[in-house]
């Protein structure tokens, strides 16, 4: 009896070793996604290894449950090899299809994208069928097959995780594609024969979707103020670290502006500290640069007239873009689409706000500027803070052009009397009995279609 037990244990060990042999051979193939020549070389090496191992790991047992030839390879082992080969082939094909899908984004190739998308989905379905087939096979078999199945699950687990990750990426790309397809479909309807009818349908949708946009506009303007303050504070901190003469720096960056005289003559003579003067002067400079062109649908980056030619459709597109972009991280968005409309806006405004001499003095080089000129978005803290401001202004711009009628844009002028209905002071006025006027505007104001006012922020100085 003890001899029989020993022989049975030895048989189990040999069976397990044989089961492990072939999955491990398959694993080496999983990493082989290169060329047809490498696949052929792998097949030759695998065939030679199988012939060599066949002599050492012959298992004289009946895997099929009935009489069988001891010299033939166990049927279930062959089934396992075939299944693993199909799994690896499917993963390889899906990876190639996904790479093709990514390449279709830049340059944009809709036909190639559709073909790649179909290929990725087909391979995912193929993998799903193989998984179900494997589960059915394992569910109906036990004994030694159970040991091999457990080992197979361990081998396949990393690839299942990779497939899940690819599914998530494909889903994100699919969402982006669906959004673009919807925009293309709507644009085609507007320009087609049913132009009038489609306009009426879009206009009706716009009225429902854009109804809360007035309140959203006011809330988004608050975000612009906070982002503007944050970026200006960082800029002022970097100036101090670089040992700048703050007063001279403010006068220098405003030398070409119409309010330069007000800074040199009045801004630094009030009761507030030089720091407050500089902070608001810098914020005024940044806002004037970044809001320049706000009244045009693309900030004058091109000559588009969609808001005039197709007003209903343009309003719908703007609000759709606002909803799509609101929750997105600007750096991640620009990592995928660096030259989209928002990306070009960031390129243009960064070069306008940050002078080359300013950047070189603050950072010791012009590396960030070179990256921007090359069409890339730097990954620095400074540029990240700038993206936060740029995104908030871009969202405000989208909301403005989604409203009907669009908000009226206004800005207080130097020397104007203070009107609390349209303006708010950035500093408290503690000078009782002293008449105050606008020293310089800090941020613009807007008059909305429902009659409400988003007040312009101003820096007040004593009236001469």
From TrEMBL:
Segments of this protein annotated with the region Disordered: 32-74
Domain GIL1/IRKI C-terminal, first and last residues per copy: 410-459
Keywords: Coiled coil
Keyword Coiled coil assigned: yes
Residue span(s) of domain DUF641: 77-189
Coiled-coil intervals, chain numbering: 156-190
Protein's GO biological process: negative gravitropism; response to red or far red light
Protein name (database record): Uncharacterized protein
Organism (species): Erythranthe guttata (Yellow monkey flower)
